[in-house]
Specification:
Elements: E1 11-12, H1 13-30, H2 33-37, H3 41-52, E2 58-59, E3 65-74, E4 91-104, E5 112-113, E6 125-127, E7 130-137, H4 142-197, H5 242-261, H6 271-283, E8 302-307, E9 310-319, H7 323-336, E10 342-350, H8 355-367, E11 372-375, E12 383-389, E13 397-406
Parallel strand pairs: 1-5, 9-10, 10-13
Antiparallel strand pairs: 2-4, 3-4, 4-7, 6-7, 8-9, 11-12, 12-13
Helix pairs in contact: 1-3, 1-4, 3-4, 5-6, 7-8
């Protein structure tokens, strides 16, 4: 039973943990289907993680303040005093010390009983962003008051330490659970739409269907914002499979090994000639539906695959000429990438002597780009993989792999 004069005793941790997870799952299920399909899975999972995670309180003992005032104190139970009237309370003028400790984090967390607790929780109340407790007595002594303050602080800190461990366990799992729930619902939504679309009939638009999604209010100092995305009907988009993407990169890596083993044959080639060599090798593995060539080029240096009028794979071949050039190449790729799930590559050839310096500089340059979102699995010593946002819509993401190769020159071995 909750006691309002005590902290950490209104709700047990296991109920809080279960409630946070269930509320998050319910909200994902209620989210507008088109809104969900048109939003980046990771961005949406991060939103729900921020919304349903708990910020554990931190008390600021350094800024503790006290106040003193006179108070009426009942001393009828004080056996050190003698009164002729034993039939009721007996008040004298005493002293009240009020202690106020500021804190940061969520105030409601002070209501939670952690997984480990005692039968004597700290006695205090929460007002705004402060913990307040009082010490009252007829003849208070400074040493005893100080000891009681210290005891209360130690008790609060002990409860908070346990609660932080409990909260950390919950918060660390929310992103993965949110992502799984989003992916499950995406699969279900796409399967349902594929069934309806295969019937060949026009879909009926529901009257009063929400065009935008508004999140309910959350009691939090900083409210997370739902990633911006359209609620327009979602249309499945063409994409290059990860298996094909890895195979294409493998073909390109094999081609660069030929260049490394025969530097004299490629000593005078420029970027356009390099692109042609790659096109020959790639089209030896893949055949296009119409032209016999899956890989084509438009503009000056890009290698690409197109589907339904959109680029789903783009590669750029560049000689290393410094970080600025790499940044410009990424901008160029973003200019070509107008479709969701576009997979891209930058192949860098180094003809300088300090290849280690080139490799060390690549991650910093890429991560400094304003459209960089995160590192992606698949990096190695000379291969770097990242997720980027489209220039016009952060929910449209592209996968970027930077491949770096040291191409020896004949002069280096002369």
């Amino acid at each position: 039973m909750a006691r309002e004069d005590y902290l950490f005793c209104e709700m047990d941790w296991f109920s809080v943990d279960r409630n946070q997870r269930q509320q998050m799952a319910n909200e994902i299920e209620r989210l507008n289907g088109d809104r969900l399909l048109n939003t980046s899975v990771d961005d949406l999972a991060q939103y729900f993680t921020e919304k349903f995670s708990i910020a554990p309180p931190q008390i600021d003992v350094e800024n503790l303040v006290v106040d003193q005032r006179e108070a009426r104190v009942d001393v009828s139970h004080d056996r050190t005093r003698f009164f002729s009237d034993h039939g009721g309370p007996h008040f004298v003028t005493g002293t009240e010390i009020e202690v106020e400790i500021p804190f940061s984090g969520e105030a409601d967390a002070f209501k939670i009983q952690p997984t480990h607790y005692s039968l004597n929780p700290p006695r205090a109340k929460v007002y705004g962003s402060n913990i307040v407790f009082k010490i009252v007595g007829a003849s208070l002594q400074a040493e005893a008051v100080k000891a009681q303050i210290d005891t209360t602080i130690v008790s609060i800190q002990g409860y908070l330490s346990t609660l932080r461990n409990d909260i950390s366990g919950l918060n660390s799992k929310l992103f993965g659970e949110a992502r799984q729930a989003i992916e499950r619902r995406r699969i279900k939504l796409l399967a349902d739409r594929n069934v309806v679309s295969s019937l060949g009939f026009k879909m009926k638009e529901r009257d009063g269907a929400a065009k935008t999604y508004v999140t309910p209010e959350v009691r939090r100092k900083i409210t997370p914002v739902m990633p911006q995305a359209s609620s327009a009907p979602y249309k499945p988009e063409p994409t290059l499979t990860n298996v094909d993407y890895e195979h294409i990169l493998g073909v390109m890596q094999n081609m660069t090994q030929v260049m490394e083993l025969s530097p004299s044959a490629f000593l005078a080639v420029d970027e356009e000639a390099l692109r042609s060599h790659f096109l020959v090798q790639l089209n030896g593995h893949y055949q296009g539906q119409a032209t016999g060539e899956t890989f084509n080029y438009e503009g000056k240096t890009d290698i690409l695959i197109r589907s339904e009028g959109k680029n789903i794979f783009i590669a750029e071949c560049k000689f290393w000429s410094g970080p600025k050039k790499l940044m410009e190449t990424i901008d160029q790729l973003l200019g070509y990438s107008s479709w969701r799930d576009t997979k891209t590559a930058v192949v860098i050839f180094n003809r300088n002597r300090d290849f280690s310096k080139v490799l060390a500089s690549i991650p910093g340059v890429v991560r400094a780009h304003p459209n960089y979102k995160k590192d992606a699995p698949g990096s190695s010593e000379t291969s770097f993989r990242y997720v980027f946002a489209n220039r016009d819509d952060r929910n449209r993401e592209m996968l970027l792999t930077v491949l770096a190769f040291d191409v020896p020159t004949t002069n280096r071995h002369s």
